Amino acid sequence: LFLPEMAEPSFYIGVIGNVISVLVFLSPVETFWKIVKRKSTEEYKSLPYICTLLGSSLWTYYGIVTPGEYLVSTVNGFGSFVEIIYVSLFLIYAPRHLKLNTIVVVALLNVFFPIAAIAATRSAFKDEKMRSQSMGFICAGLNIVMYGSPLSAMKTVVTTKSVKYMPFWLSFFLFLNGAIWAVYASLQHDVFLLVPNGVGFVFGTIQLILYGIYRNAKPAGLSNGSSEIAADEEEGLTSRAPLLS
Question: Any transmembrane segments, and where (predicted)?
Fold first, then answer.
């Protein structure tokens, strides 16, 4: 592990993926700094961060129970820690009328569901390989479902002919993170990592193409409602984009 000449190529790719993933996990820090300064979550939504915490926690468990996937468990363990902080800040600063709803969603998605998923896979399968594969299937499925946010962002770009709500660097990191982890998954022969990150790579590529097409285009008019939706999609993309590993 500590001797470069003895390390597998996948190790170096995984380390690069870890660095990129850490940067993505930390990308909402500015948002939460604003929340703390203003002591209010204002119009920001908690669901993207709650979903990211769900995915990160399950990927952490997957990395722990799957031989050779310690790089997956370490980066997602870090991601889980960061997302717990984000979600906790939401619970502290959310408006009173939203606080109870947020607590319920956190309890369901960040407590009940992970415990139920882990307990179900452990009770249903005695073989460690089957447990790992079943958890990988759950994680990959969640990742693919969560890619609905980038799809919405791309639809907004085409509809409005504006890239305002699809920031270049977020799209670039979606592309780069998906590419790195897809290569890592190929080297590790891990289909559960390959499929969602392959999807992320494809979506990231499409977003970069759309950015190139519409970055100088004259924007179509947006209603206030559309602006709020697009802003929410940007926020979701910030936290969900590469849903790591």
Answer: 12-35, 47-64, 70-93, 100-121, 133-153, 165-185, 191-214
**137, burial (CB in 10 Å: exposed 0-12, middle 13-18, buried 19+):** middle
Coil/strand/helix, residue 237: helix
SS3 state at 73: helix
Model pLDDT for residues 81-128, shown as the tens digit of each residue: 999 999 999 999 998 888 899 999 999 999 999 999 999 998 988 888
Burial of 121-133, coded b for 16+ CB within 10 Å and e otherwise, reads beeeeeeeeebbb
The CA-to-CA distance between both ends of the chain, in Å, stands at: 20
Q: Which amino acid is at 179?
A: A
Distances in whole angstroms, Cα of residue 187 to Cα of each of 12, 54, 179, 191: 11, 26, 12, 10
At 40, give phi and psi (nearest 5°): -160, 145
The pTM of the full predicted model, rounded to 2 decimals, is 0.82
Contact, 55 vs 139, CB < 8 A?
yes
Distance (Å, whole) CA 111 – CA 204? 31
Name the amino acid, one letter, at 27: S
| Closest CA relative to residue 68, chosen from 178, 185, 196 | 185
pLDDT tens per residue, range 171-187:
888 889 889 999 999 99
Q: Is 100 exposed, middle or buried (0-12, 13-18, 19+ CB in 10 A)?
A: exposed
Closest to 173 in 3D by CA, of 231, 240, 232: 240
Residue 210 CA to its chain's centroid (Å): 21
Give phi and psi for 50, each to the nearest 5: -65, -40
